[in-house]
Amino acid sequence: MRFLTFFLLLVFIAVPVGAHQAESEAYFVFDCPPNTDTFVIKLTDPQIIQKARNIIATGAGNIVAGTLIKQPVYYNSRWSYHLDPKSIAFPEAAIELCDAAMGYLEANLDIAYADWCPWNSRLIKEIPPPPKPGSENIAPTVSMRFPYADNVYTDVSPAAITLEANADDVDGTIAKVIFRSGNAIGETTTYPYRFTWSPLAAGSYTVSATAIDDHGASTTSKSVTFLITGDAPQLLTDIETSKAAALESVTLVKGPFAVIPEHFVTSDQRTRLLLFAVSLELRSGETVAAITAEAEDSQQRKYVLPVEAVRRVPNIQWLMQVTVKLPDELQGVGDVWLTVSLRGVRSNKVLVKIK
Q1: Structural domains of the chain sorted by starting position, each given as residue range(s) with its CATH number in brackets
Q2: How many angstroms separate the CA atoms of 237 and 225, rounded?
Q3: If residue 197 lies in a helix (H) or strand (E), which one and from where to where?
Q4: Counting beta carbons within 10 angstroms of the beta carbon of residue 18, is it exposed (0 to 12), middle (13 to 18) or buried (19 or more)?
Q5: Which pLDDT belongs to residue 97?
Q6: Whole-angstrom Cα distance, residue 293 to residue 303?
Q7: Which class for 224: exposed (0-12), middle (13-18), buried (19 or more C-beta within 10 A)?
Q8: Exposed, middle or buried: residue 12 (CB in 10 Å: 0-12, 13-18, 19+)?
Q9: What pTM does this model have?
Q10: Which of 89-98, 160-169, 318-327 has the lowest mean pLDDT?
Q11: Residue-wise pLDDT tens digits, 184-196
């Protein structure tokens, strides 16, 4: 099982904007130097529109971030996906895992995580509203946000899963979103479009979302599958490197990692790693003591990594973040395979390089 893990967002930093006249929509172009590709976004929030104009006027270094809808739209016709206008923001920075080039997303759209914030993106200009194709009602666009791709979610039966979809209608409004697994299983009329499905027994499930607009036109997303099982926890890997989705806890950079970091905030001056996992939820009353971590080198020597914290990643209810400490014995070891165990059930092995 491979998990796509390059799309975790930081909390966006609010920037005051000046007075402005309310507008219903505006269109902007951004690029990602040194690549010459461009991407068109539509904004529908008056404050966000003004903020975009301020960024262009001042040359501020804010990047573009938002949630993907994995279907084409006429105003961004070069690409097979677009950003949901309701989700777009302009943070000052983002964790590296959410970075991806436009062409890479195009080639890997089916497995791409739903949130996107290219590190080197920059707004370059505002453009007039692109002409709409014809005079007929345009059908909505929709894709699954969670689960965002096949086999990126597992849980232990009996389970509950909160399905979420992104949907937009370029010439009207979304009347409702219906979640389906063969037949309809639930629906919602409010954004964000979510439905909690429970109880779920062990098995494989396939789900999709259908968006219906205010004129009755409908579009159904690509379906995704997930598994309800009693399987072990799963550590996430970086799809581009196949190594662990691991970050140094202070600098938030990827490996190789030093046992004694250049920058530290703890009295023992040792590196902490952030690992990301699914199916690692603690039960009511359990503490971090229920989780253990271990590294194994090429000589099959094993090292205990103290687990110091486990928590949900903010705004991503299915993803857990585990903080582990690198012991002195790992200095200079090189490649090691990390595992975590929950109540004695061991995860998959993921590769980490130690300096």
Answers
A1: 26-127 (no CATH), 141-228 (2.60.40.10), 234-354 (2.60.40.10)
A2: 19
A3: strand 193-200
A4: exposed
A5: 63
A6: 9
A7: buried
A8: middle
A9: 0.62
A10: 89-98
A11: 999 999 999 999 9
